[in-house]
Amino acid sequence: MSNNTSIADYQKSFAAMLAGTEANTGALAGTEEFRNGLAAAAASVQSALNRQSSLKGQAQQATRDLEDALAVGKQMYSRLRNGIYMHYSQEAEQLAEFGLQPRRPALRAKKPTLPGPNPTETAASETDGTT
């Protein structure tokens, strides 16, 4: 089992070792306990890999189901929102009950008055009344 780095490498090594010990059972009389332990471990590894693969498939299917349900939910939300707007109008304050923002008239900002000379005072000072 030199330089095994992946699970597949370990599985190949386990299978080769088990095949070799099965072929040489008579010569390896005292190793049955270890051979049985390795066989059980190899079976557990395969079982865990199968479970992992199955769960990965289930997770992917759950993701697809979630995306589908979310797409349907978005579409139904949009249709219901538009129906509420049609029923109440976009300016109705009752829209807030549905979590929607009613359209409110924009408030006009007052023009700030800049400090400066008064136009009537400037006109009077430029003319002294004599023509």
Question: What does the model show?
Answer:
The chain is mainly α. It has one domain. It has helices spanning 7-23, 32-88, 119-126. The longest helix is centred in the middle third of the chain and has 57 residues, at 32-88. It is elongated, with a radius of gyration of 42 Å.
Brief characterization of the structure:
The protein is mainly alpha-helical. The protein is built from three helices and no strands. 0% of the residues are buried.
Identify the overall geometry.
elongated
Report the end-to-end length measured between terminal Cα atoms: 118 Å
Can you count the helices? 3
- CA gyration radius, whole angstroms: 42 Å
Give the structural class.
mainly alpha
Largest sheet: none
Mean pLDDT: 85
Q: What share of residues is helical? A: 55-70%
Residue stretches low in confidence (pLDDT < 50, at least 5 long) are: none
- The tally of structural domains comes to 1
β-strand amount: under 5%
Strand tally? 0
Q: Strand-and-helix sequence, N→C? A: HHH
Helix-strand layout with pairing:
Layout: H1 7-23, H2 32-88, H3 119-126
Helix pairs in contact: 1-2
Question: What characteristics describe this protein?
Answer:
131 residues; mainly alpha; 3 helices; 63% helix; elongated
